[in-house]
Specification:
Length: about 120
């Protein structure tokens, strides 16, 4: 997410939309976040918001505003690779082995699952 995208975020409108989606009245929402109705309307018109208040609102609306709105999403959705290093006694490896066979890979998986 670039700076220009962040400047386009109008958090008050997003909160207002989420309140509507949760089918909460202004009064109900105000009680849940311990604010007045007047403050709720003020929140709906804000471009930015205090992080503590945003966390409270996130909890009440069961929506992670920080992750969904402010933290950039990775465009790479491909599975990530994870490498595992296993320490072995070199004398246990045959001298002619250069690569682990498919059968040996399966045995390693079984061993890891049992640990």
């Amino acid at each position: 997410m670039n700076k220009n995208h962040r400047s386009e975020i109008f958090i008050g409108k997003i909160i207002e939309q989420k309140v509507k989606e949760c089918k909460l009245s202004i009064s109900e929402f105000a009680i849940l976040i311990n604010r007045s109705r007047t403050t709720i309307y003020d929140i709906f018109h804000r471009k930015s918001i205090d992080i503590d208040l945003l966390l409270t609102i996130s909890e009440v609306l069961d929506y992670d505003f920080l992750t969904e709105i402010y933290i950039p999403k990775s465009k790479d959705l491909s599975p990530k690779k994870c490498y595992l290093a296993i320490e072995v006694d070199p004398s246990a490896i045959p001298t002619d082995v250069r690569e682990v066979s498919s059968d040996q890979k399966s045995r390693v998986k079984v061993l890891l699952n049992t640990r």
